[in-house]
Amino acid sequence: GKVPASSILASAPSDKNLDAWRDSGCRTTHCNLEVVQESTLVFLATKPHVLPDVLQEIRPAVGPHHIIVSLAAGVTLQTLQRLLPAWTKVLRLMPNLPCVVQAGAMVFARGIGAGDEEAALLKTLLSSCGLCEEVPESYINIHTGLSGSGVAYVYLFAEAMAEGAVKMGMPGGIASRIAAQTLLGAAKMLLETGEHPAKLRGDVCTPGGTTIHALHELEKGALRATVMNAVEAATQQACDMAED
């Protein structure tokens, strides 16, 4: 809501990819150069292998007034700066899927041409989509393992929680809704209280109660170690993709 839809110009090769933009009231085109010529802030949301060709196409139109933001996984700031004019204000952004419901987790890093003004602008605009933090570029692949892929870990956990309730006799529909709300509430408490997760977990446990028995079973299954391994594996894969 911070930018009128009529002020947004989106480009894509096919009409199919532009339908959602048109439905939102945005202007559309099939010409990438037109976007650069008519915009100041330009988001590059392409597949990584497509991005070099797009950068070569738009390079002649990029001026000192432009702010270029890349969402392409694995494409480093160094690469972006090499393929664009040397003075280009370039930033690298990594969002995650819940941005579509304005509850995303995003990190960005700035290139040598981008200053505090550009970073503040990006953070202000993207705050509408969820949490947005500036980080060193070395954190971006970690963010992919933690939050980009992490959304899937949470879905798997929610599915397991609901199936446990179904096993005990609760219908699947209500079990899934309660599992989702439980995750939402727990996450909200983490963000709003600022407490360490271990502190909040301890607050739920009472001596000899249901929660400590359940946590004992999770520890038997090495839940924490398995999740840590998952974050490590996804981060390493993101690093490997960047090297390729």
TrEMBL record:
Residues annotated for NADP(+) binding in this entry: 45-48
Top EC class of this enzyme: oxidoreductase
Organism in which the protein naturally occurs: Heliornis fulica (sungrebe)
Localization of this protein: Cytoplasm
Residue ranges occupied by any Pyrroline-5-carboxylate reductase dimerisation domain in the UniProt entry: 137-239
UniProt record similarity statement: Belongs to the pyrroline-5-carboxylate reductase family.
Protein name, entry field: Pyrroline-5-carboxylate reductase
GO annotation, cellular component aspect: cytoplasm
E.C. number: 1.5.1.2
Pathway: Amino-acid biosynthesis; L-proline biosynthesis; L-proline from L-glutamate 5-semialdehyde: step 1/1
Gene Ontology biological process: L-proline biosynthetic process
Matches recorded under Pfam families: F420_oxidored, P5CR_dimer
Gene3D superfamilies: NAD(P)-binding Rossmann-like Domain (3.40.50.720), ProC C-terminal domain-like (1.10.3730.10)
Described function: Oxidoreductase that catalyzes the last step in proline biosynthesis, which corresponds to the reduction of pyrroline-5-carboxylate (P5C) to L-proline using NAD(P)H. Proline is synthesized from either glutamate or ornithine; both are converted to P5C, and then to proline via pyrroline-5-carboxylate reductases (PYCRs). PYCR3 is exclusively linked to the biosynthesis of proline from ornithine.
